[in-house]
Amino acid sequence: MPTNNLDQLYRSVIMDHYKNPKNKGVLEDNNITIDMNNPTCGDVIHLTLQVEDGVVQDAKFEGEGCSISMASASMMTQLVKKKKVDEALNYAHVFSDMMLGKEVDDSVDLGDIEALSGVAKFPARIKCATLAWKAMEKGIGNDSDE
Description:
Elements: H1 3-19, E1 32-38, E2 43-52, E3 55-64, H2 67-80, E4 83-84, H3 85-99, H4 123-141
Antiparallel strand pairs: 1-2, 2-3, 3-4
């Protein structure tokens, strides 16, 4: 697929997650709540996670921010649901590498997250894309002994 068509597809995926976010809301039966913000641009996220027996059973978010920040939160919650904590943390590390422009292992299925790969070209937007991921890491990083 030519680069322009791929860029357009990626933009469409990002806008779809921004306009129709997945997992928007607050988990009533959560056991992990994380609030983070990006003071540089004003993005804010409130992430709630339900982690049981070392598995992220559910994930929801609320927040305000740019399309990249909110789309990334939507994509992240979709990806980590029903995943083991160590697997979710691995996705966060892979995503971080992608944001830093590093080569990412092709065997890791990032799904819609791949649409955010172009953000690496815009250093000022990387914090927008990684906010939800940092919140998730903060929330479950301490629980990796489950």
